[in-house]
Design brief:
The complex is a heterodimer of chains A (638) and B (618). With 638 residues, chain A is α/β, with parallel strands linked by helices. Chain A is built from 25 helices and twelve strands. Helix content of chain A is 61%, strand content 10%. Chain A has a six-stranded mixed β-sheet, sandwiched between helices. With 618 residues, chain B is of the alpha/beta class. In chain B, helix 5 runs parallel beside helix 8 and helix 8 crosses helix 13. Classes of the chains: A alpha/beta (638), B alpha/beta (618). Chain A: Its main location: membrane.
Chain lengths: 638, 618
Amino acid sequence: MLLNQDLIREAGRVRRQLALTVGLGLGASLLAILQAWLLARVVNGVFLEGRELPGVWPWLMVLLGLIFLRAAFAWGVEVAGHRAAARIKYDLRRRLVAHLLALGPVPLKDEHTGELVNVLMAGVEDLEAYFASYLPRLALAALVPLAVLGFVFPLDLFSGLFLLGSAPLLPLFMFLIGGQAERLTRNQWETLGRLSGHFLDVLQGLTTLKIFGRSKAQVEVLARLSEDFRATTLAVLRVAFLSALVLELVATLGTALVAVSVGLRLLYGRLPFQEALFLLLLAPEFYLPLRLLGSQYHAGLAGVTAAARIFDLLSRPLPAGEESKVDSPARRDEVVAPFIGATRHPGRATAPPGDNRGVAGICRKEGIRSGRRSSPGEAGEGGRPAGEKSLPRRGLHIILEDVYYAYDQGNRSALQGLSLELRPGEKVALVGPSGSGKSTVAHLLLRFLEPDRGRITADGHPLDRVPPEEWRHQVAHVPQHPYLFSGTIADNILLGRPHASREEMVAAARLAGAHEFITALPQGYATPIGERGLRLSGGQARRLAIARAFLKEAPFLILDEATAGLDPATDQIIQAALERLLRGRTALIIAHRLSAAVRADRIVVLDSGRVIETGRHEELLARRGLYYRLITASRGAV
Amino acid sequence: MDPLTRQDTLPPPLSASPAARENAGPGGHRPGPRVSYSKFHPAGTFARLLGLITPAWQAVPGAIMLGSSTIASNIGLMATAAFLIASAALHPPAGKLMLAIVGVRFFGITRAVCRYLERYVNHSITLGILGRLRVAFYRTLEPLFPAGLPGYHSGDLLSRAVADVATLENFYLRVLNPPLVALAVAAGVFLFLASFGRTLALAWLGAFLAAGVIFPLGLTIAGRGVLRRQGEARAALNTALVDTVQGLADILAFDHGRGQQEYIATLDREYLRLQGRAAGLNGLAAALTGLAGNLALWAVLVLAIPLVNRGQIDGVYLAMLALTAAAALEAALPLPMLFPHLEGSLAAARRLFALSDARPAAGDPPSPVPRPRDFSLQVKGLRFRYGPGEPPALDGIDFTVPSGARIAIVGPSGAGKSTLVNLLLRFWDYEEGAIFLGGYDLKAYPPEELRRFIGVVAQPTHLFHTTIAENLLLARPDATREEMERAAREARLHEFIHGLPLGYDTLVGEEGLKLSGGQRQRLAIARALLKNAPILILDEATTGLDAVTEREVMDSIRHLMEGRTTLVITHRLAGLEDMDKILVLDKGRVVQQGRHAELLRQEGLYRHLWQLQQEALP
């Protein structure tokens, strides 16, 4: 039947629109029946009663009115159906985005961006036809034939019984042959998908083929594959089309048999002409909704397939701290309170975390997607209160105690009893072989993950009692590969603080050493970048990420050092900018370069999720432990 | 001659215009009718498209006939049934009705049978066209690749091309077939109705044209703006979703989650609003088609009644005429979708033709192919830029590689290293200066011949979605099993392959077994070993590998370099001690050259890069 629980639940949310769609559809069918009756009446009047045009004119005018009314209903069905589907699509897309944001980047690390976006875009769109067409047609396929029978039975018991008897054949064949044939066809289209994949594969590998001088030979391979495919597909289709053949045959033969039987009874005077003609016109109306349902089979199938992917994504378990937030937007003012003193944006803490309503529209020109800050509770918060600059520049005191974390439902251990203290204002470099747990520590401190065991505190407050987004106000993150959003350069810097003034934004860019290259661009800060804009070099992207961090003015900094080979001049600018950024902040530096480790107040060496040794560069070298080995190994590799 | 490259069906000034080519670039993907029509005349594109599918034409008349018969069967069913009932009402002897009864039953069966055959034939034709399109498109694309393809780097150009071919696959089914079927049916019905009265036929034709041509055209024009804006809204929403998925960490770290959510919701509302308007128009199209059918019935009825009254038409035909008029409108049903499909097909064709009209970047030389005296390389005053107005990628390069020598080319990204490789393989042709291979200008060798002399290990290695064996044998299809395994063994890949359940027959690539970076590189090395070419280019062959794997891969590479003229292109300064010479490239110029130890002693870019690398931590 192509129904599933999730989809029925969604349909329940728009039951009124769906009922309207079905109601209009049923209305249109009733009008069609009425039209058939009038037609029979008019023909009878002219043909047998010998009436002239004026005699049947009133009937004809009613008929004309019905025709227009029917068109209006048919239009209404489409519009109402779309409305219902649109509400579901909007709602689902919204929930999917919320869920992705709640999941965070770590569980989605191995997912293909294209596939995720595909679920949100095409997957959700596939539900359009399901809710707008398939479901209403399913209801109409049950209701309209019954309505037609309601007219047929009082007139002619035999035709009524005949139609009633033949009706189950349609769904029966649809699911007997149809199901089988669909499966065959679907497999075949998958093969077509693979063929198309092969085509893309060949095109993508064309450079390789050319280098080996094999590119010309592919012409024959492609031709042969296409021909093979055509032959096998046609063999399958020969069978697959049988279901449609049977459906059509039942409907047309059914109509034909009704016509012959009423014709014969009319001949022997057992049925008046007007009623016989009316019955003939009703027969196709009887089968029509069933056949239309058959033609919507693909829409139903696509909807169910898409739903599987959508609800699979929605059912991914959330990290511990995020669950309550998505399910029930609870206030957390009491646990937030300790941090208000350190926050530059106290107004935020009072806005209920789940309140998404009341945002009229987002003007991108005002700053990067400033929607969140334009909610009513924060209306007065546009500029920064005067006292904010006088924040104590000492940084947070962060302690990780005996922290455990494992990926893949506890199967892949990453941290095993890690303890680490970052004193206010201290710069700590994390060093260790790949897989030692450096990124896991950063992810925990960004609250993308919650520890399985152990405790993390900031200025004495347990982190797990603070909502993640509240905590993240305290953290500035400069990742190894910062992501640049589609928007202007200004938009991308303003992500650090959406309501910063232009002067503050430019000041941050200057501090990050980005101002010079930005002003050298023809459109300056208004230059569009990202997927559909200018492509920035690695060094330029990095400087924008640093500018973001400057603008944020958070007391705690997580810095993932970039390893990409920058040219010497850029490298110098970035090093200087980072030095400025580190001043007055507690910082965790994931070091990929010796110089960062040397400059840190303390180096913490990780191995297999534990702290192996800690100290300053010289101390660790003298100890000749893992740190020493790592450094000599990295040189030895060269 | 290949249909895709055939010029005779297209107005000459249009096909070669640079603007048309620009249309295929990354910025020109979205079909903008106003822009494109000025570049490619739609009629020209249409004719060329027709030419492309011409060989599939033999089956088309049959398909049209079956399509018309399907509709004619339904008309026949309703018309003979109405006639049967009307005749029966006059209570003739039963024998007089036999023909009508047989007719009703006959049409009840032929309808389904014709539909079945029609679908089958049409699919057969469509699949044939698809195959032809693929092959024709590949054939024209192949010589252009990669240099002749503007903006192919954006990657989606290829996916776009594949999607365009898929769009054209529907050209016959959705654009060509329906109007021909409609024409056949319309002609038949018109003549049938005209035999009863010309006014009937004309009224019916009016309704048919309204349903098939006037309403759809009007709605297409009315909906054009909405569709365009809907496309834009969709693109904006898609971009925001891509941003959300890819920038998830940054969004969350900057607590922009709710802002992003609101932004997406706003875009989605706008998209759905426009979609709603498009749905309204679509609904209108469906309603109007139905309306036209019923109006045809009504008009024929109203016009026929006086004729019946006057005895010009026997009353027994009245119901039959009305039902014929209504049922025949079925042929107009697919016509509204014709216009969007036509536009879509023309846009897709325009993009593909623009691609295939691009000129190969490296042409075949006219003179006989020279035999290289040895495998030395000489580069003299080489200058190259990718396009007019672009900064030079190579800005006067000179160096020599004696036969069998090893030379490394290093420098930061953007220095021009990959450009040099592209020129050496004749993917592009240089404008100024020259490269000599074995004493002859590179341009004297046909690209295919030239590439026989060169083995390449590049990054990333493209693995085709097929078996490991086939991926290896690409390098030398006639190699024996032993030769292939020897190459794999020398690349230190044999043990791994041998350990797989299917061994060399394991599927790899997109949907197959995922190979690690090191394994892929070793597969590339095995390919190069199998090819056994005298010149070897290692283009960032170990980039992105971890230190241990890098060392292992380098060991295999060292083996590969033996006795070959070798060019190592890298930005990692690893294993360069035994190079005969190192060229340091920066911004398209050679800024330093010498051996590793010499370069380290000099103050300069090489030492800086070396120091940066020295302090790298894992």
